[in-house]
Design brief:
Blueprint: E1 2-6, E2 19-20, E3 23-24, H1 25-44, E4 48-52, H2 63-79, E5 85-88, H3 104-107, E6 113-116, E7 121-125, E8 130-135, E9 156-162, E10 164-165, E11 171-173, E12 180-184, E13 190-193, E14 196-198, E15 218-223, E16 228-233, E17 239-241, E18 245-246, H4 252-264, E19 274-280, H5 292-301, E20 304-310, E21 336-341, E22 353-355, E23 360-366, H6 369-379, E24 396-400, H7 406-412, H8 418-427, H9 450-462, H10 465-524, H11 541-570, H12 574-601, H13 607-614, H14 633-639, H15 644-660, E25 665-671, E26 674-679, E27 684-685, H16 691-708, E28 717-719, H17 728-741, E29 747-751, H18 756-759, E30 764-772, E31 778-784, E32 789-792
Parallel strand pairs: 1-4, 4-5, 5-6, 8-9, 9-12, 10-32, 11-32, 12-14, 17-19, 18-19, 19-20, 23-29, 23-30, 28-29
Antiparallel strand pairs: 1-15, 2-3, 7-8, 13-14, 15-16, 21-22, 21-24, 25-26, 26-27, 30-31
Helix pairs in contact: 1-2, 8-16, 9-13, 10-11, 10-12, 15-16
């Protein structure tokens, strides 16, 4: 008997603004993968079909998703009238209210379909001695956990369950008790034993389909009699991630030419594909370095275009303050947040504390938007800061123990003005006031003393116009030559990568074709037709199978080589890295020389003279230094976008806002009124509505990442930006980014509406929800979420 195992269909998932034939582009892609998979299952004619959860992407799926699911199952039952279909609910299609069975329960009403949405359910088929235990998400996410037992009287025992096998005392599953364990949850195929498998998703649900382009998507056929599994890939929309394009803001024509060459090298062109372009250089918006006309032409041809901006490989650009031997400041996080009710009301109890002692994402929420806003403020407020919880919240307290550092306090609380935060960084004790001078933006930091004085004198003597012009001319010549070498080698590397990818796909297609021919011949036996003369093969069947098997072995070996070759080319070659480093060094030297020459032409002192004069009065004394200076907004605005370190932060913020808005916004900028956003196509305007939350989130994350690289950032992260209602659709890709950036043992707290619990239940480790009792007093309720963990304890376990 053979089983078809499908999982994680995510019908109704929507991303990007693009549509196709009236459908959201990505919703149509996932529906097409589902229909194709069911047609292939019908052709393979299994005796049982399992669908292991997350049939729908949300507990309130659109009508198009319900229609797709029911029509597909009805069609499958029409082609396989005697084959049962068993379904369990996942985290995405399980409503928050346990009394609501959710959309999966609707499928139970279809003829020949049995579904489990809440409690476990055992299904027995007496005709063939088959027992199947269905364990949906709700039964595994929190205790009491169900007993996972086989039927000792059954010929075959099959378990379908949501979770990820891990070490530890979680939900115990003994694989030796089961003939097949169908796991749902992971989006890529995995096996922990031949008969314990996750088949993965049929397509690539999520806002970053480029992250797992090497993983095939499909479903599994498991043969209970033979005990072996076959994976059947499902075709999906093509995903293309171009090699990085080196660009410069002062040479848009060169960037346009380089990008066009790479696009022309994409096998089969870009039409109808999900395309990501990486522009690398000192730019803050795509239009700085590539002709907007080319980008618009690419958008028209590609199914969806995402543009990623990358800086140089020189690392973070926030000045490090000239360290002289002391370690960086250790990461910080409030290890205990005290949430409690002084009068003992509510589930929280008097003085009860919520400890944050591990990694993962915790959602802190409340039904009231005003209460969520209060939460965001109080979570970022230090003990004894003078803030009063008066009025409507006298009995409830949140007390994070924040550090003395103004930088860490501002960063933890999500300082609304990143310019102010940078001012704090440059003038705080974390700027290493005790380790040397904290340089102003763009200023080189040097040690004090005679060596510095001598250096300043040399710079002054050397700073004549003639010398500076010769220096700049020579550096520009070297930089142009290095850029040409780098461009040629980058293009060669990109072509090698694309050639390896094309060959690998060709060998995979050939292997699938040979496998299907062999399976068909085995099914037809001696009656199979000869491919040459059309007669029955008879005794010649074995010889043909042997020939085809040898051919398949050769194809597999060649394909393995091309896969290894492609993996080797994923990492940048050493000679290319060396060329990039040389080009970056020369580019930085050209910028510095140009700045020195311009200052000399303007009659201003060169950097060495200015530094010498600024320290003539002697070093600053930390004991007498005043508080950080409040820089006027106009001053910050004039410096942002002009200094290399600030452009790096803007560039990274542009990436985040493009991801969060799914391409509707292209970059972060500034206008006369302050922070602004760049629309798709290049228009600059103020952020409106939920875009303000996306803008604050992008700037917060970009500043934090640059500071963190210097060892100054908190070990955890507080994301408050999406606490308002109506920002949920932006919060979903933002949380995906938070998951990508999270590290083991590093906690993240998100303040957001409770609707996110149903949209991304697998993301959150825990939910803390504030609520009022009948008397109006506050308490809190805690709920464990996340992906269920299965403890496999069989005799033949090993990661495969």
């Amino acid at each position: 008997m053979r089983i078809a195992h499908l999982s994680d269909l995510h019908l109704g998932f929507r991303a990007y603004e693009e549509t196709e034939r009236g459908w959201n582009l990505r919703e149509r892609d996932l529906a097409a993968a589902y229909r194709w998979a069911l047609q292939e299952v019908a052709r393979l004619d299994p005796g049982l079909v399992l669908i292991a959860g997350d049939v729908f992407d949300r507990p309130d799926p659109p009508s198009t998703a319900l229609l797709t699911a029911t029509r597909g199952l009805a069609g499958l039952r029409g082609q396989l009238p005697g084959v049962p279909v068993l379904v369990i609910a996942g985290g995405r299609d399980s409503p928050r209210n346990p009394a609501d069975p959710g959309p999966v329960a609707v499928l139970d009403a279809l003829p020949g379909v049995d579904a489990a949405a809440g409690a476990p359910r055992a299904v027995r088929f007496r005709a063939n001695g088959l027992h199947v235990l269905l364990v949906p998400y709700r039964a595994t996410v929190s205790p009491p956990f169900p007993e996972i037992r086989p039927d000792p009287d059954a010929k075959w025992n099959v378990l379908m369950i949501r979770g990820i096998p891990t070490e530890g005392d979680w939900i115990p599953v003994d694989p030796d008790d089961w003939d097949y364990v169908a796991v749902g949850g992971p989006h890529v195929q995995k096996s922990w034993a031949e008969h314990v498998r996750a088949t993965g998703a049929l397509e690539r649900p999520g806002w970053d389909p480029w992250s797992k382009t090497l993983d095939e998507r499909g479903f599994t056929i498991f043969d209970l009699d033979r005990g072996n599994a076959e994976f059947h890939p499902v075709p999906g929309r093509a995903v293309v991630d171009l090699a990085p394009v080196r660009v410069a803001s002062d040479d848009r024509e060169a960037g346009t030419r380089r990008l066009r060459e790479l696009l022309q090298g994409v096998p089969g062109g870009i039409r109808g594909k999900l395309l990501r372009i990486s522009l690398r250089g000192d730019i803050v918006a795509p239009g700085d370095a590539v002709a907007p006309g080319l980008l618009e032409a690419v958008r028209v041809r590609a199914a969806h275009l995402e543009i990623e901006l990358r800086g140089s490989d020189r690392g973070p650009v926030v000045p490090d303050g000239g360290r002289t031997g002391r370690d960086h400041a250790p990461p910080w996080f409030p290890q205990e947040l005290e949430l409690g009710s002084d009068n003992g009301s509510g589930r929280g109890g008097p003085g009860e504390s919520l400890r944050i002692d591990g990694g993962g994402i915790t959602l802190v929420t409340a039904e009231s938007e005003a209460l969520r806003q209060w939460l965001a403020v109080r979570l970022g407020a230090p003990i004894g800061d003078g803030t009063s919880d008066s009025g409507r919240l006298p009995a409830f307290r949140i007390r994070p123990e924040l550090p003395d550092s103004a930088v860490l306090r501002a960063l933890w609380a999500g300082e609304r003005d990143p310019g102010r935060l940078i001012e704090l960084i440059l003038q705080s004790e974390l700027g290493d006031r005790n380790h040397g001078d904290v340089g102003r933006p763009g200023e080189e930091v040097r040690t004090r003393g005679p060596a510095r004085e001598a250096h300043a004198d040399r710079e002054g003597r050397r700073g004549t116009l003639g010398v500076l012009e010769v220096e700049l001319r020579e550096l520009r010549g070297d930089s142009i030559e290095a850029s040409g070498d780098l461009e040629a080698r980058t293009l060669e590397w990109a072509r090698e990568r694309q050639d390896a990818e094309s060959n690998l796909q060709a060998y995979r297609a050939k292997a699938r074709e040979l496998q299907e021919r062999i399976r068909q011949l085995e099914r037809d036996g001696a009656h199979a037709e000869c491919p040459t003369c059309g007669q029955a093969l008879g005794a010649g069947l074995e010889d043909l199978l042997l020939t085809l098997g040898g051919e398949l072995e050769g194809v597999v070996q060649d394909g393995s080589w091309w896969r290894s070759r492609r993996e080797q080319l994923e990492e940048k070659p050493a000679d290319l890295q060396s060329l990039e480093a040389r080009a970056l060094r020369l580019h930085a030297q050209v910028e510095a020389a140009a700045e020195r020459l311009q200052r000399a032409r303007d009659g201003a002192p060169v950097q060495g003279d200015e530094r010498q004069r600024s320290h003539a009065a002697g070093p600053s004394d930390p004991a007498t230094a005043g508080p950080p200076r409040e820089a006027p907004t106009s001053e910050l605005g004039s410096r942002w976008g002009s200094e290399a370190w600030s452009r790096g932060i803007l560039r990274e913020a542009s990436n985040w806002i493009a991801r969060v808005t799914q391409g509707r916004l292209e970059a972060v900028g500034q206008d006369t009124n302050g922070w602004a956003v760049v629309e798709k196509g290049g228009g600059l305007r103020p952020a409106v509505g939920g875009e303000r939350a996306a803008l604050a989130f992008a700037l917060h994350l970009a500043v934090r990442n640059h500071i963190r690289a210097r060892g100054h950032a908190p070990g955890g992260l507080l994301l408050w930006e999406f606490h308002r209602a109506g920002t949920e659709e932006l919060a979903l890709p933002a949380l995906e980014l938070a998951v990508e950036m999270s590290e083991p043992g590093v906690p993240v707290i998100v303040v957001a509406p409770p609707t996110l619990i149903e949209r991304l239940p697998e993301v959150f480790r825990e939910v803390v929800e504030l609520e009022r009792d009948a008397s109006g007093r506050l308490g809190f309720r805690r709920q464990a979420l996340g992906v269920p963990s299965l403890s496999l304890r069989g005799s033949d376990m090993g990661l495969r």
